Amino acid sequence: MSRHAADPVVVRAPYQKFDVIVRRSEIDGHGVFAAEMIPPRLKIGEIRGEAITCAEGRRRAASLQRIMIVEVSPRTAIDASKSTDPMRFTNHSCQANARLAIIAGRIEFYSLRGIEPGEEITVNYGETHHEGKLRCRCGAPNCVGAL
Q: Rounded to two decimals, what is the model's pTM?
């Protein structure tokens, strides 16, 4: 059986603790979806990328609408835009089912509750470079309306 380029692929990258699928998201662009049941309060996976200064991260963010940059310390940011880690496609939701944690300079994702197979994995981005000017499209009942 042949695969089409748009078919989702189950991914278990070296830094993934659970299988996930990257595919189109109703929230924005691509998202990452659970391919198996993820129990509450467990590490799902992490993202890696290019270590840059926070100043360089802010410079890059100012010129882009869609970014994958996370500040991991007062001086260091990680640009995951070229990463192959599937968790880089984690979208924002005002009613997130996971959280992003910075642990020893690593960007890790943990489930807040059980996540069902097929459910999109989301985190609350908190402060972003958009400064409240980008419309939030998460669709949650408690959506604040902007990022």
A: 0.85
